[in-house]
Amino acid sequence: MYTNDKDIKLPHDPETIVWKYLDLSKFVDLLLYRKLFMSRSDKFEDQYEGTFSEPTFEEIRKLSIDNPDFLDYYKTHRKNVVISSWHINEYESFAMWQIFTQKSEGLAIQSTLGRLQEALAPEKTYQQYIGEVNYIDYKKEYIPFENAFFPFLFKRKSFQYEREIRIITDATSHNLNIDNGLKIDVDISQLIEKIYIHPKSENWYKNLVIELVKRLGFDFTIEKSDLESDILI
């Protein structure tokens, strides 16, 4: 279930193109179980994930002098927040292929912001929020904390190349012991508009992906990567 939050920044155009780059095993898991995996926020490579900038931390630290539970809440909260990351871009990204896929194998799901929102409708257990990540200087800039999702919608400027949109869930009220993440129900046909296969993949790999999609009962449009185009001289 997707829930809008007026405080969270998001592109206005529902046709905004978004991408998810992933390996074949994660792609098969998505199609086979028709569930979207969301990673626990404190398991991301960036150790600052879900934390505060220095100016904000100083303010929270002062507030927690008389209420130590205030700071402890933010530390434990990260374990209950799960995230699915998507990349905003009108075109394929060479950098995203390099970072999120191995060697010459992997896929990219192309979707739109509107499709993402609609694809979350089948999920009844967890509320989903979608927001665009803000990239700031953590030494100088302030992160507001009146909204519990804000710490997960800010990252350091070093990550600006990610141009990230996030699906976020706070599972605190469900009293779960989340390991690496959890899976949520999605409408796969709505979620995926097109599939792009790694530009450096061999023909056997491309055929494998095409056959897998077919055998699992889907008929997605599978595109040749634009980065694989022939050179014109």
TrEMBL record:
What is this protein's name?
DUF2971 domain-containing protein
